[in-house]
Write a structure and sequence with these properties.
The complex is a heterodimer of chains A (about 170) and B (about 375). With about 170 residues, chain A is an alpha/beta fold. Chain A has one domain: NADH:ubiquinone oxidoreductase Nqo5 subunit (Beta Polymerase, domain 2, 2-Layer Sandwich). Chain A has four helices and eight strands. Chain A is elongated and about 65 Å long. Chain B is globular and about 90 Å long. Chain B has one domain: Cytochrome-c3 Hydrogenase, chain B (Orthogonal Bundle), CATH 1.10.645.10. In chain B, helix 4 runs antiparallel to helix 14 (about 355-365). A three-stranded antiparallel beta sheet of chain B has the order 1-2-3. In chain B, strands 6-7-8 form a three-stranded antiparallel beta sheet. Chain B has a two-stranded antiparallel sheet with strand order 4-5. Classes of the chains: A alpha/beta (about 170), B alpha+beta (about 375).
Chain lengths: ~170, ~375
């Protein structure tokens, strides 16, 4: 991805406040985002919340199975005062727990449950980490890249209808 | 006769399962209520009964193929869903819809806002026990659906827009139909208000029920009419205009009661403002192309964008990650209903069971969007 550097007042505040952790500030199509290690991620969100970004628009994940650190967690924050959004990204490996944002935003509760359900990324410190959309007895996590919808269809048709799927 | 005192009243906690087939849960929402008498002590929402894996489907379809799927999330505001999706992909490929397409999009999106709010008002009133409003609302909603049908052949899952503009040009009678609708509908809104706004039962059932303060709204990332009823003057059409909304004059209704009654007032006023916007488009829709130059095979350059619009229910966002191929690498939908519903677990605590029905209605959820 060909990104531009993110340069403005907020970016320099972030840069001066996070000198001890790796911090990458980029922008794409005019949408700024910061990438941090998991250790700095909650601190960065906390810092931004104190700067007026008190609205957690969305929290989601992206699966990169070929990368050494597999899951990218993306938090989108909005500030009513500045009328702008910023994103905070971090990476966690398969089987590792990501830090929770439930202490900062009530909205993180359901969103982190959805990430757990869809990707199998656990959140350390989440008060009620269980599936939200998939049935409780469902095996695996559907949005992982290795879950192919064709394979899932064939498996279901074979197990339930005792025929071969036409897909 | 025994002199032993008999404890007729069971005082232990009662667990009540409501839904997923309960008519007041607007689809397949299931609630597990912990009750102390009629009072709600705790609520748990159990969702996912309508989960179809929309985001997974998105990764397995091309950008163009996925467009009709978004109509089936919030199926009562398919036009608004399509608008958000088209804008997100357009941003990713760096294309802007022509002026004519933008204004048609606004006109149809506002008609859709009216039809969505009408369905909400009718069913919400029915939940509260006012049946007349449902028939009135459905009657007017039918007129909007007829306009959609004349435009694109579909009433509900319209798939009205294409990436880069519109598939169909406006039909010849669109302006006359929309004008006739606006003339008729403004008076009808007054009729709804006569039925409900000062109706003592309506006020009693909604005033002070389901209060969610501005701070709580922000923490729960609640958007749309719910946050505006809590005193936050925030509408994405005004805050971050898209598709040419900056050209139109309209007010953003804001109330301060933060309760179900004020949410009702905000939505009713929003319908009036939508009529105002539609009137401003009529006679002003510019000529010219309806579709920008978009390659037949869409391969957006690698990158990621988040684009959101003010859908009838709140902020509808699409976060799309492209790896340069024909298929989205990741397609995340930020559904307003899902986020708004999460606040139910807060609002319903301490309320009566009957109030829970009112609170579900006031959130205006569509389970197709909550579960995706």
């Amino acid at each position: 991805m060909a990104t531009d550097p993110w340069e403005d007042e907020l970016a320099s505040q972030l840069r001066s406040s996070f000198t001890d952790v790796s911090l990458k500030l980029e922008s794409f199509h005019g949408q700024p985002f910061a990438t941090l290690e998991p250790g700095g991620y909650v601190k960065a969100v906390e810092f931004l919340k104190a700067q007026g970004f008190d609205y957690l628009v969305d929290l989601t994940a992206v699966d990169h199975p070929k990368d050494p650190v597999r899951f990218e967690i993306v938090a989108i924050l909005y500030s009513f005062a500045a009328n702008r959004r910023v994103r905070v990204h971090t990476r966690v490996g398969d089987g590792e727990a990501a830090p929770t944002l439930t202490g900062l935003y009530a909205a993180a509760n359901w969103l982190e449950r959805e990430i757990w359900d869809m990707f199998g990324v656990a959140f350390a410190g989440h008060p009620n980490l269980k599936r939200i959309l998939m049935p409780e007895d469902w095996q695996g996590h559907p949005l992982r890249k290795e879950r192919s919808i064709v394979a899932m269809d064939q498996e279901w048709v074979r197990a339930n209808l005792d025929i071969e799927s036409g897909q | 006769m025994s002199t032993q005192p008999v404890n007729y009243l069971e005082t232990s906690e009662l667990v009540l399962n409501m839904g997923p087939q309960h008519p007041s849960t607007h689809g397949v929402l299931r609630l597990v209520l912990k009750l102390d008498g009629e009072r709600v002590k705790a609520v748990e929402c159990i969702i996912g009964y309508l989960h179809r894996g929309v985001e997974k489907i998105g990764e397995n379809r091309t950008y163009t193929q996925f467009a009709p799927y978004v109509d089936r999330m919030d199926y009562v505001s398919a036009v608004a869903n399509g608008l958000g999706y088209c804008l997100a992909v357009e941003k990713l490929i760096g294309v802007e819809a022509p002026a004519r397409a933008q204004m048609v999009r606004v006109a149809l999106a506002e008609l859709n806002r009216i039809s969505s709010h009408l369905l909400w008002l009718g069913t919400h009133a029915l939940d509260i026990g006012a049946m007349t409003a449902l028939f009135y609302c459905m009657r007017e909603r039918e007129e909007v659906l007829k306009i959609f049908e004349n435009y694109c052949g579909a009433r509900l899952t319209t798939h009205a827009f294409r990436i880069g503009g519109l598939q169909y040009d406006l039909h010849d009678t669109f302006e006359a139909e929309a004008r006739a609708f606006c003339d008729m509908f403004e008076k009808r809104i007054d009729e709804y208000e006569q039925l409900l706004t000062k109706n003592p039962i309506w006020v009693e059932r909604l005033r002070g029920v389901g209060v969610l303060t501005a701070e709580e709204c922000k923490s729960f990332a609640v958007s749309g009419p719910m946050i505006r009823a809590a005193g936050v003057n925030w509408d994405l059409r005004r805050a971050q205009p898209y598709s040419g909304y900056e050209q139109f004059e309209f007010d953003v209704p804001v109330m301060h009661g933060a309760d179900s009654y004020d949410r009702y007032l905000v939505r009713v006023e929003e319908m009036r403002q939508s009529v105002r916007i539609i009137r401003q488009t009529l006679g002003r829709i510019p000529g010219g192309a309806i579709l920008a130059k978009v390659p037949k095979v869409l391969k957006p350059p690698a990158g990621e964008v988040y684009v959101s619009t003010e859908a009838p229910k709140g902020e509808l966002g699409y976060y799309i990650v492209s790896d340069g191929s024909q298929h989205p690498y990741r397609l995340r939908v930020r559904p307003p209903s899902f986020m708004n519903l999460a606040s139910l677990e807060k609002m319903a605590v301490g309320a009566l069971v009957a109030d829970v029905v009112a609170i579900i209605g006031t959130i205006d959820i569509v389970l197709g969007e909550v579960d995706r």
